[in-house]
Design a protein that fits this description.
- By secondary structure, this protein is of the alpha/beta class.
- It is 39% helix and 17% strand.
- The strands form 3 sheets. The chain has a 4-stranded parallel beta sheet, with helices on both faces. It has a 4-stranded parallel beta sheet with strand order 6-5-7-8, sandwiched between helices.
- Helix 1 links the parallel strand 1 and strand 2.
- Helix 4 crosses helix 8.
- The chain is globular.
- The protein starts with a strand and ends with a strand.
């Protein structure tokens, strides 16, 4: 059975625990989920600046992991960093944004995304555009709650997300996607309240990663994700495979 690394993009262990629980609930019995929290980086990722910082922390966490693994789940909705992992790894790397959107496209003609902060909306749109999925997205809405406040009042948070999800359905979404890894715990509440399927990105990515392993598929190393040539990184404080600290 496969071993999946599920990597949180922020350094908050409580968020990692939520992500790990969602992944474990989704995969088949016998599949091992190994959650990783970066050893450095932002406590939450809520800006382009923090997203770029987190990408390095995620790369470091995966490359420093001691033990075999068969696939990686990049658990940051709308965040950068998946491409770098694909450069340095042969195993499948599944981003929760793309996994959720692809899954939603199998369930309905259009999907809408409900996320935490309004400033995350453009970044999510960018990731969907790059993935070629923006044309199926009928809208992205936010409740404007910081990631680390989502668990402060779970009932109020669930109501806020449900209200925005209902507006997405009114606007034409046939499927609703949870647009934040830390929102995995809200899936049941939204699914019960809405007349459409609700997709959690962490669960979708974990199950998709598991399927890719079972199919014997790996990341293409031709062109886009070819392994980077070894070179000196001047002033770089981290040690990574294929790199020579300068």
């Amino acid at each position: 059975m496969p071993t999946l690394l599920v990597v949180n993009v922020n350094t908050t262990q409580a968020v990692t625990d939520v992500i790990a629980a969602a992944a474990r609930a989704a995969v088949a019995p016998g599949t091992t989920v190994v959650p990783l929290t970066p050893r450095f980086g932002p406590a939450s990722v809520e800006s382009n600046y923090e997203s770029q910082l987190s990408a390095v922390g995620v790369l470091d966490a995966v490359q420093q992991h001691d033990g075999p693994f068969d696939a990686v789940v990049h658990a940051g909705f709308g965040e950068v960093g998946r491409d770098a992992l694909q450069d340095v790894l042969d195993v499948p790397v599944v981003d929760i944004t793309e996994a959720a959107a692809h899954t939603a496209c199998l369930l309905g003609r259009t999907f809408g995304v409900v996320t935490s902060l309004d400033r995350a909306v453009p970044a999510i749109g960018d990731r969907l555009l790059l993935a070629g999925l923006a044309g199926r997205c009928s809208g992205v809405r936010s409740v404007d709650l910081p990631v680390l406040e989502l668990e402060t009042d779970p009932e109020l948070t669930a109501k806020a997300f449900t209200a925005q999800a209902e507006r997405l359905v009114e606007d034409g979404a046939e499927v609703v996607v949870l647009g934040c890894a830390g929102m995995s715990g809200l899936h049941a509440a939204l699914a019960a309240a809405l007349p459409v399927p609700v997709v959690d990105g962490v669960a979708a990515a974990a199950r998709l990663a598991e399927s890719l392993v079972a199919l014997g598929l790996t990341t293409s190393k031709v062109r886009s994700y070819a392994t980077p040539a070894p070179k000196v990184l001047r002033g770089w404080p981290l040690t990574a495979p294929g790199r020579i600290p300068g």
